[in-house]
């Protein structure tokens, strides 16, 4: 048990203030709501427990959690023009698990095998400088079985996104979508942000939609294009 880390996750984050008492992990001062237990060995998830509801003032016993045999993922990598030498970081984790297996992807390789993954529907993400981020690609991991999936790397350039808003307004959602409607950037319920809000995204060539919502139902959107991967493009 001393080698493990136990996390109590929610839809908005997680708590790590656990105490080990006689082989059991105990969490105190937890707000009510939907929760799940995640167990890490080092940085790798080895158990993602089921969701449960914690009621106000409730003392919840989640019972004994038992790790299960893991599954394997064979991930094919399609390298688009300009990504042949890119070295990316890949994350594979159970959907909604908040923690994922981190795997280095060396330059030039077109396939990677990730073993001992938690079973269930999983998400695949990948990030690297000079390529468009990959978010939310899905696969299903089954114990004792090799699943297959594929991701495509696309060369990208940096573009600054700027949200101008009044001091009396509160941002509630910021999104950037590609021409097919896939989310490139999704920031729901942003907390206190500096004005104007700025972020730099790595985007491939193509057309995009930039959407912002404010408290009270205010909405605005604009389209823009990436016609070059140059770094000195004007902000959106």
Keywords summarizing the entry:
mainly beta; single chain; 236 residues; flat; five-stranded antiparallel sheet
Percent helix range: under 10%
What percentage of amino acids are in beta strands? over 45%
What is the total tally of β strands?
A: 20
The end-to-end span amounts to 50 Å
| Stretches with pLDDT under 50, minimum 5 residues | none
Shape: flat
Let me know the average pLDDT: 90
- From the helix content, strand content and strand pairing, which structural class follows? mainly beta
- In DSSP terms, counting alpha (H) and pi (I) runs of 4 or more, how many helices? 0
Element order: H for helix, E for strand = EEEEEEEEEEEEEEEEEEEE
Assembly state: single chain
| Cα gyration radius (Å) | 21 Å
Q: Largest sheet at a glance?
A: 5 strands, antiparallel
Describe the secondary-structure layout.
Layout: E1 4-10, E2 13-15, E3 18-21, E4 24-27, E5 33-41, E6 44-48, E7 52-54, E8 71-79, E9 88-94, E10 101-105, E11 111-117, E12 120-127, E13 134-141, E14 146-153, E15 157-163, E16 171-178, E17 183-188, E18 197-203, E19 206-214, E20 218-226
Parallel strand pairs: 8-14
Antiparallel strand pairs: 1-2, 1-5, 3-4, 5-6, 5-7, 8-11, 9-10, 9-12, 12-13, 15-18, 16-17, 16-19, 19-20
What does this entry show, briefly?
The chain is mainly beta. The chain has strands at residues 4-10, 13-15, 18-21, 24-27, 33-41, 44-48, 52-54, 71-79, 88-94, 101-105, 111-117, 120-127, 134-141, 146-153, 157-163, 171-178, 183-188, 197-203, 206-214, 218-226.
